[in-house]
Amino acid sequence: MKYTEPQTELFWRIFYVLAAFMLTGLACMITIAPLIFIWLNPAPYMIPLLSIVALGGFGVYWFVNMFRQLFWKERHRSRYEMTATHLNGVTWRVEPGESVEQSVRLEAIEQVVFFPAIVRKTQPSPTVPIGRPTIDFCPMLAIMTADESVEILFDARDLDQFERWIAYFHEQGTPLYYTPKWLYWIGANIATREERFLLFQQPDELIPFFYTGDIPADESTAATAWIEAYGIERQREGPHEAHYVKQAKIMKWTAIGTVLGIVLLAASMIGIAAFS
User: Fold this and answer.
1) Does the pLDDT at position 259 exceed 90?
2) Using CA atoms, how far apart are residues 136 and 39, in angstroms rounded to an integer?
3) Which pTM value belongs to this model?
4) pLDDT tier at 129 (50, 70, 90 boundaries)?
5) What is the CA radius of gyration of the chain?
6) Between 33 and 269, whose confidence is greater?
7) Around Cβ 31, how many Cβ atoms within 10 Å?
8) Contact 105, 115 (CB under 8 A)
9) β-bridge mates for residue 81, sequence order
10) pLDDT value for 57
11) Distance of CA 118 to CAs 36, 72, 171, 184, Å?
12) Strand partners for 141
């Protein structure tokens, strides 16, 4: 039994290429435009525009790094193979330190945890409650031994493959568990593999997953049982919520800082012009 992550859908690959050119190009323009203005009008009050050059340079760095990770992932697709005695896997992740090559004995597998992973999320605004975020999930399996876990992220186009792996462990009598918590978000680095491994070892975080052959119904049953056992508030607790709260604060202060920066920039240019 084998599984290899497929390439990203053609629509998103085209979107990433276009976005890379547009956003990086915009950042380059923000970097170059103030220099052109200063060259055309070398007056003292134009000096504060150099701060915009620094901002644009940071934007170029940020966008190049982000899209470099996306294009790197397209060339490095995780793959796994189940032999008669071992589970061998090569996992590629854009998060630092998460790529790993593993080989575990099948007899050493103690449990398998099924949980939803965020593969794509669009948020209208972290600071203004207008619009509703759209979130795309894919199933993820943590195949655990006493010392480590092999994490397999299945694509939405490969749900039949996901069911094959679930059915295999069910037939082998391997304990299956489930949690509805969002513990992995591609590229966001909300939790490490080791942190998830430790979390899955806690008995009050998981619920038994009963496979009947109907994955959507089985997941719905498990999610309901988890919420009944631990409560809806416990579901919201975790690395995703902590990451979201942190990002919302960053966006809020970034917006405030941007406004203040524009005001200070304009005031400094006016001040220099008045005294020069």
Assistant:
1) no
2) 48
3) 0.77
4) low
5) 24
6) 33
7) 18
8) no
9) 2, 88
10) 84
11) 43, 19, 28, 6
12) 114, 152
